[in-house]
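Need a sequence for this fold. Nothing fancy.
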């Protein structure tokens, strides 16, 4: 196995209409209820031997712009958005090797329910389920569940600690070999191997055992995206894969080094958690084709500042509508995604809000990648060599069958020819494929 191989996965921004109005999105506005486009996406990913699809989620309609839902509804921004576990199940049925990782927010699903949904997904997919564990970021989502506001940021992670322990204990409530299926004696399940957990926490409690039965992977894969100090600590203790939006090679390396040191502190082997960095490659068959796509994106962002700022407000929980576009952004804080906001502010520096938001919307997450399959493959290879691993999470702002093909049928074959990514799955289950290299 070449030492510099890395993993590739996909970050799908919710089961929503993607990129309404963008080129090559077909009749998505009429056909979105049946997610055939996402099923085509996962089949293409599996053909390209990618590790997993992470289906992002949020459970509210945005209102972080002039305290109104108008801009979000008018432009179809993360709405309509379907329940990710439903779409994940269809994705599992459309594939045989790809990992399927839906997001379930801790405040919205009791841990017993999460353990049952993810456990069932692990069963129906033959051991390919993961759970993207998020604690939420918007009071608007909490209000859909009867909460005035979400608990404070760090407090959410303390609650998440209990939450994940319940999930893990429930998945472990069936010992291996509990299902004996002995036709002669008529015993299906050995009752001595199925246990109550009797977890009594400060925030959550559960009796167990899990009634949906054992998971093929034993414990489904845990994905996490902690960026704050509390978040990183949590991820280092529990995650099998971490998705990170660090900007630039140095920030990626610093993040990975820190997580690996924390894992060692907690007695975990750092190689058992794969850290994937968010990227958004603009792939053209020639450099000028890629430059043209990128120029169009920048022009589109510059002419749609309200929409772009509303989008940033959505993830940072800040209403930017009253801000002066021609002043520096200044200091801001949030009870939402602290890391996303910190990244935005660091990159913005002294530039005006107008400049900062265009850059933020078009600079492509972790690395600036605008080029041909060959030139982007060079950049990804160099980046991984400098960072030390473990791979990338692809997120496109304009998901369409055509843009997906630029990755799965353009960039990835180039990476495969260089032996930088896998050409065939070695295993049937998600964790085994993640641990392959
Ligand atoms: C790639 C990626 C995917 C994420 N997916 C979700 C998601 O689906 N739902 C959500 O509420 N938050 C999501 N987040 C936000 C994280 O859960 C987390 O709040 C964020 O990374 C900031 O970390 P912090 O809360 O420790 O500051 C995601 C973040 C990243 C980088």
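Here you go.
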């Amino acid at each position: 196995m070449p030492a510099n191989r890395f993993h590739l996965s996909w970050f799908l921004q919710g089961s929503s209409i993607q990129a309404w109005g963008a080129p090559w999105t077909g009749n998505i506005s009429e056909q979105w209820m049946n997610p055939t486009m996402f099923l085509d996406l996962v089949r293409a990913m599996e053909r390209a031997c990618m590790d997993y699809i992470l289906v992002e989620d949020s459970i509210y309609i945005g209102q972080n712009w002039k305290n109104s839902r108008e801009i979000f509804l008018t432009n179809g921004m993360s709405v309509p958005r379907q329940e990710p576990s439903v779409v994940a199940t269809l994705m599992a049925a459309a594939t045989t090797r790809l990992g399927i990782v839906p997001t379930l927010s801790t405040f919205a699903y009791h841990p017993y329910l999460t353990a049952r949904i993810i456990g069932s997904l692990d069963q129906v997919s033959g051991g390919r389920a993961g759970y993207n564990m998020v604690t939420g970021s918007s009071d608007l989502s909490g209000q859909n569940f009867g909460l005035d506001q979400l608990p404070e940021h760090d407090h959410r992670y303390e609650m998440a600690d209990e939450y994940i322990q319940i999930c893990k204990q429930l998945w472990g409530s069936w010992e291996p070999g509990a299902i004996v299926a002995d036709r002669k004696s008529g015993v299906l399940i050995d009752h001595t191997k199925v246990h109550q957990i009797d977890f009594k926490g400060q925030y959550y409690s559960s009796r167990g055992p899990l009634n949906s039965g054992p998971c093929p992977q034993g414990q489904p894969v845990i994905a996490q995206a902690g960026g704050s100090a509390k978040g990183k600590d949590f991820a280092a203790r529990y995650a099998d894969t971490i998705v990170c939006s660090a900007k630039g090679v140095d920030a990626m390396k610093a993040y990975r080094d820190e997580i690996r040191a924390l894992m060692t502190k907690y007695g975990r082997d750092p190689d058992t958690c794969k850290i994937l960095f968010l990227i958004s490659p603009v792939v053209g068959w020639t450099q000028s084709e890629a430059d043209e796509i990128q120029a169009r994106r920048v022009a589109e962002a510059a002419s749609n500042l309200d929409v772009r700022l509303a989008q940033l407000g959505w993830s940072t929980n800040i209403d930017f509508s009253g801000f002066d576009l021609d002043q520096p952004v200044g200091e801001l804080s949030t009870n939402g995604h602290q890391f996303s906001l910190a990244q935005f502010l660091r990159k913005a520096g002294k530039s005006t809000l107008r400049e900062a938001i265009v850059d933020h919307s078009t600079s492509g997450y972790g690395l600036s990648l605008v080029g041909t399959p060959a030139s982007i493959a060079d950049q990804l290879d160099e980046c991984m060599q400098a960072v030390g691993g473990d791979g990338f999470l692809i997120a496109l702002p304009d998901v369409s069958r055509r843009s997906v093909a630029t990755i799965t049928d353009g960039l990835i074959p180039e990476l495969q020819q260089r032996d930088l990514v896998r050409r065939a799955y070695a295993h049937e289950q998600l964790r085994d494929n993640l641990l392959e290299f």
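For context: The chain has a mean pLDDT of 94.
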